[in-house]
Hints:
Bound molecules: ligand PTJ
CATH architecture: 3-Layer(aba) Sandwich
Radius of gyration: 17 Å
Shape: globular
Number of helices: 10
Helix content: 40-55%
Strand order of the largest sheet: 3-2-1-6-7-8
Oligomer: single chain
Distance between the termini: 39 Å
Structural class: alpha/beta
Amino acid sequence: MKPIIPKSHPRYSSLMTREKLVEGFRRGIVVPEGLIAHGRGEAFDYIFGERTREFAAEAEKAAVALMLLSERPVISVNGNAAALVAEELSELSEVLNAPLEVNVFHWSRERVEKIAEFLMEKGCKNVLFAGDAVIEGIEHFRRIVDRRGIYSADTVLVMLEDGDRCEILRKNGKKVIAVDLNPLSRTAKMADITIVNNVTRAIPEMTELARSMKEKKREELEEILKSYDNKKILDDALKAISDLV
Ligand code: PTJ
């Protein structure tokens, strides 16, 4: 049953976002666990005022600088990310010349193909989903990757991630950028760059930044990264929470 959500509803945007996930669930893109994960994200987003904070904007700028400097950047996409921002991810993929790779925790070949088809339907011309390689050290299904993608990437952008993959990707010599509304999560703490923001804002903002930063010289991009401190970003996010009490 579809609810009627009037534009005048004070929670209109949040409710419409929920509907995207429910629709994704019905299509077999989002798993039931993804709906629970979204609830956690929603709670943090509410606390942060449902807007891009300064610590997120700074991290997004550093993330784009790193992606532009990388030789083989890859954007890892799971069920929730596809349901929420498929079109926006397709744009980011094009501007950064970085493939989208389907990588999920709840794996089945059928589900991976469904997500890949959905991303292509939404306009992405560069979707990887072969699952023809394995990242050693990861015990769950996120170990299954594409040889031309995450396996050989130098930088991986991950979002709505769970558990230990970030740590292992780093042990494999990769740089990791994470979008995660929970600044206390293991992924947030382990990433090189943590964007504490909702993917629905972070991804289009990164595309805009990429468009304007593309012409910058390498030295300028390196300078942005040199002055970036992820520990400070996470501290600022935590401070924003504690300032509320
Ligand atoms: O599609 P699959 O099979 O890969 O499964 C995906 C889920 C999301 C089920 C899986 O990765 C999972 O269980 O994730 P967790 O452990 O719940 O972690 C998700 C993290 O993303 C949490 O820290 C949430 O706060 C955060 N989060 C949730 N929604 C958003 C978000 N971060 C940014 N934007 C959001 N919209």
